[in-house]
Amino acid sequence: MPMRSPERMGIPLRPTKGKDMGKGGKIMAVTAARREAGHAAEALRIADRVAGILRSPDALAPLADDPGDVLSFADGFSGISLLFAVRAAEGRESRTVAHAHLQRAAAAVSRVRSRNAGLYLETAGLAFALDAAASVGGGYEKALATVDQALIEVVEERCRDIDENPLGPFHRYDVISGLTGTGRHLLGRAPEHLPTLERVLSTLVALTRSLRYHGETVPALWATHPPNLRSENPYSMRKYGHLNTGLSHGIAGPLALLSLAHARGVAVPGQERAVRTLVALLERLAHEDEFGVHWPNAVSLDEWAGAPRERGRTRPSWCYGAPGVARALQLAGEAFGEPGWTALATESVGSFLRVPMEHWHIDHWSLCHGWSGLLHLLRFFRDSAEADRVHHATEDIARRLVTGLADPDALRLSTFRETAAPRHGWTTPGFLTGATGLALALHAYARGEPSVAWDAALLVA
Description:
This is Lanthionine synthetase. By secondary structure, the chain is mainly α.
């Protein structure tokens, strides 16, 4: 059903005041002292500069050639609002700035008939952003109730589809477009939407069971398509699909959500068994080289059946490889009291940190697959057995970012109109691959624990 207008959805002209609450109802205290980090001051200056550019929704030319640029949480106004929710929580910005972006997002969503269940798309992304804004002073109850109700209908539909057709594309269950990402929003809203959250968890649990597929026994999480359209994908992968290991699109995503839910006291039948199955899959699929353990992004049916796997290391990032997969394993180990899992997670982080940085093949600063995502995820391993390597890598990455972005012209933000085909060297403004995510990661590096749990959208918290 089409969404109602922002005012009818309950978004007031000015947000109401209330207690500062974090996602999931926990009070999130703003860090009192700045991080003692070598590049904190420069990182904050860049984050402030990005915020200044993004502050006005009008300046972002919202009449996009691709409506998805405005609608989606990944690229649009709802994701951008997270930066200003964080700044409002720390007294660096008025709440009305985040509110202005939320109004634009709600207006765009109200004009479409969305059947998408994914967090990084329209409805769930708006719901997550509204909840984040509500954590800074309250409000938005009516808007959240309306958006959540529309979302719940789509989630139930998605769960029924998976019940009837267990094998299919990964977008049905992944973090970006599927049940895992939306489940993280519902976990933050529990106990209000507990039945729907439990339905999501039960569906993910069911996807860990084994099925027969083209003569092999595979997990129901098997994706029946290749991971991308690249011609270099093995024939078996193009014909029979793959098992995806990544946090964004693969089995690490459900592992993270099931573990986060368990840690918060939300459990369904078979949940622990499902987590153990997923960890066992990652253990089975792990490779070792001279630097240590790592994972392929995807496994073909031939490789699953035992054919040699000759592909080398992949780029370390949030979306694929360590540290994304490592953080999911770490969450599982912490939630279920399994130090061996956290040790494997730490080992994989130390492994890629032993690889010379110039061989990481990172060519962007984004959250998804770039330096800022890596910077943020390393924070979860600061107290691990690899603490020294993590500290040095964190400071090296921060130095690369602040040095590369010190020139004001280094971040030439395009408008939404230009994001469909941005000019060479121009920057998109959004959360997942744009300037908002960069600013949030730099801000967290400089200030410490995020005052608003924006990184819950990454399934790392």
